[in-house]
Every structure is written in structure tokens, then in C-alpha cells.
Design goal:
Layout: H1 7-14, H2 28-33, H3 35-43, H4 47-54, E1 58-61, E2 76-80, E3 105-112, H5 116-134, E4 142-150, E5 156-159, E6 162-165, H6 174-188, E7 195-203, E8 211-213, H7 216-237
Parallel strand pairs: 3-4, 4-7
Antiparallel strand pairs: 1-2, 2-3, 5-6, 7-8
Amino acid sequence: MSDEKYALLRTFRGLFEGKPYRHRIANLGDLVASQLYEDLVALGKSAKLVERVQRHERVVNLKNLMTGKPGRRGDGTFGELVPTAVALTEKGMLVARGPVATIEIGAETKILAKAMIKQIDRVINDLVNQVNQFKRGGGNPICVAFVGINFAERYVSFEGKKKWPTDGKKYKHPIQEAAQAEQRLKDKAQSAFNEFQILQFRATNAKPFPFEWVDLATMEMEYSSVLTRISREYDRRFA
């Protein structure tokens, strides 16, 4: 049983622990980012947000687009339910799902498990561009990013049935690139977001598929602070 206090962190762990992580599955970021709203409601720091969620006036839109507004997918958007739509509830979830007319909070999740420097420029561009997409509706959304960075000493990736283990030479081990990747993200992407948190973890993606956080206590404290600041900012912007 995991020790995480928050749904977002438990969901992130579940991507790796006890099973292979498949980086090409497109909705994994959605699964993680959507838990931000569960944690915001559970924390209860914004009475306005909680009340609107309970009334089904605010929902998570996992299609990640405003109705009538084309744009690139975001991993988890939260906003006002389209007036003619019906909010859909899911067992065990605090926040209903449905199409949104506005985006009040937009969350993006990226996961760097290996080959980080090779893909870092693309990841940075994706993050920055996503902020622009969140803002295309003309509102004033709170933009949030979570980036998982692997600090494991080795890693195996999967392409179908093919395995690609790191060797420390041609295929760098995650630990060899993690610090540089984190610094480049902070230098080039962090300032575009209202909240930006690095999730440092270790996962080898090899049997028995272990997972651990680099420093769970510190990360939970940082995440709790992120939730508190988002709640306060929500009340300020969307009174």
C-alpha cells in the first residue's frame, strides 16, 4: 500500500509500480493531471471551488478542449459546465466530468523516464505552447504543470515486444541526465506557468517494477503548498 497523502501522487505511482510503463499511451498524463482537482476539493481551501463542484457547475473536461474552441489537447482542464450539458459522475470521484464552456484551471503533465536530453526541447515547447492553448478562450486560467523526472540508475523502455535497456553509454541511464533535464525545465518552462512542480522519482521499468520517490515528505509539502496557492488564486480570480 502506498504512503502518499494525495490522489495525484498515488496515481503517478500507479503508472509504474508493479507493471511496465508504456510511454506511448496518450492518456496517462490525463489520469495524473485530473487528480489535481480531486485534491483541491478534498483539501477544501477554496469554499467557492468546492461548492461549485458539488453543484456540478464546475467539471473536469478530459477531452481538454472548450466547446467551440479548437486547440491542442491539455492533460486536464477544469471549468464551467456548458449550460445545456449534463455533468457525469464517476464512482469514487469528487469532481464530475463534462464539456466546459470556459477554462479556469488547466493542468499539463509530462513524464521524462529516459532519453531526457534528446527530448527536452520538445517537452519544453509543448509545455509553453500548452499555456497559450489554455488562454485561447480569452479567460484568465490558472496554468499548472507537473513534470516527472526519473532518477533511477537504470531503465528499460518498451516498443511493442522490444525492450530497450539503458547502458550508460549510447543509451544514458536516467540518473546521468535527470539533473540537467530538471534545470533546463526550470530555466525554459517554469516561468510560463502559475504553478510548476517537478516530481522526482525512481523507476527501473524492469521486473518486479519497483517505484519510489526521491523524497516523498518534501514533495508532498511542496504539492500541498501548490494546492493552497491554487485555491487562494481561484478565489481571487473567480469570485
